[in-house]
Automatic annotation (TrEMBL):
Domain Solute-binding protein family 3/N-terminal: 62-290
Keyword Glycoprotein attached: no
InterPro entries from the UniProt entry: Bact_solute-bind_prot3, SBP_3_CS, Solute-binding_3/MltF_N
Keywords: Signal, Transport
Protein name (database record): Amino acid ABC transporter substrate-binding protein
Length: 369
């Protein structure tokens, strides 16, 4: 059967239903639920920092963290209303660093179109929301990117029944793509470069894109591979769908802050680096107490606050890194429980492996000294 015939037959197929219940597809616990605060909370003042944002957060008593309203594995509410996911855990890591309490977070769900305005107007203190770092955003939106917590790229989700092996076989296909996203621009660039034609099915949100794909209104869905893996996990028959091998863009996803508060950007950046360095040094949430008490390794002692007070330069307490790793875990733990190969998303570490792993990736933290 030709691809064109396959597309035509699929248009008449019965609609696929989305498996929206998160009971069966949600990741495991995002952090240990037992009380984990073992060091005294810092005073709710920050005399050693020039960060206006940190002072506002301390006065408020909670971090306002902008997150995706519902992306399985990255940011979603489970059946009990608790926020879970890869990005959610980094919000909680920041609260652990600032308050010695990972639960002192207000999670504020934001759509693609409203996320930057919410940050610029002070509705949120930071975005941990699957946002791609681009030149135009960095230079023109009044925001700064504080790091990369996930190296992603754009791909295509298709039905296995189409028997496609490559995105170059999508000539004439109807492709669902979210308007106002980098995905829309990348899609046009890719097909133009390849000299191929496609029919855009423009949607307003990721949910609408998944719905249209599930009911056969488009032949392929394009987005970041992480979002495609999340979409596939919600379908009635996840095994009946595949992500094509081509990655057509670079999508470095990471936290975003307002411009003009470099000290706050440092806190966000070093929260991420603490989780990365924790994994590199072999510090897990289960072992951190013993390591804190017994290790003689200089960098471990500095990261955990057993020696010196590097947190003071950030306006934080000496055990800021210890609290992150004790209450939330290191980067590898955060990755595996939310989006790793043991989760419904089944994502391999790939580029998101440590720089010194057997199969090396791009995850790397500067020295803690």
């Amino acid at each position: 059967m030709s691809v064109a015939s396959a597309f035509q037959s699929l248009r008449g197929a019965a609609c696929l239903g989305l498996a929206l219940s998160l009971m069966g597809c949600g990741p495991r616990e995002t952090a240990r639920d037992a009380p984990a605060v073992v060091s005294a909370a810092p005073e709710l003042t920050a005399p050693s920092t020039s960060s206006a944002t940190l002072k506002a957060v301390l006065t408020r008593g909670r971090l306002n963290c902008g997150v995706h309203p519902g992306l399985v594995g990255f940011s979603f509410q489970d059946n009990s209303g608790r926020w879970r996911g890869f990005d959610v855990d980094f919000c909680r890591a920041m609260a652990a660093a600032i308050f010695s309490d990972a639960d002192r977070v207000n999670f504020i769900p934001l759509s693609t179109s409203e996320r930057f305005k919410a940050l610029q107007t002070g509705k949120v203190d930071v975005l941990w929301r699957s946002t791609s770092w681009t030149l135009s955003r960095d230079a023109g939106d009044g925001v700064d990117f504080a790091g990369v917590n996930y190296y992603d790229g754009q791909g295509f989700l298709v039905r296995k029944s189409l028997r496609l092996n490559s995105a170059t076989e999508l000539q004439g296909a109807r492709i669902c793509v979210q308007t106002g996203s980098t995905s829309e621009l990348n899609l046009t660039d890719y097909f133009r470069t390849k000299g191929l034609k496609f029919v855009p099915v423009v949607v307003r949100s990721e949910d609408e894109g998944r719905d249209n794909y599930a009911k056969g209104a488009c032949d392929a869905l394009t987005a970041d591979v992480s979002a495609l893996a999340a979409a596939r996990s919600t379908l009635d028959d996840p095994q009946g769908h595949m992500i094509l091998p081509e990655i057509i863009s670079k999508e470095p996803l990471g936290p975003v802050v307002r411009q003009g508060d470099d000290a706050w950007a440092d806190i966000v950046r070093w929260t991420l680096y603490a989780t990365i360095m924790g994994e590199e040094l072999g510090i897990t949430s289960q072992k951190v107490e013993d390591i804190h008490a017994e290790s003689t390794h200089p960098e471990i002692r500095r990261l955990l606050g057993a020696e010196g007070n590097l947190g003071g330069g950030l306006g934080l307490g000496p055990e800021w890194g210890y609290n992150i790793l004790r209450q939330v875990g290191n980067y590898g733990e955060i990755f595996e429980r939310n989006i790793g190969e043991g989760s419904p998303l089944r994502l391999s570490r790939g580029l998101n492996a440590q720089w010194n792993a057997p199969e090396r990736g791009l995850i790397y933290a500067p020295p803690v000294r």
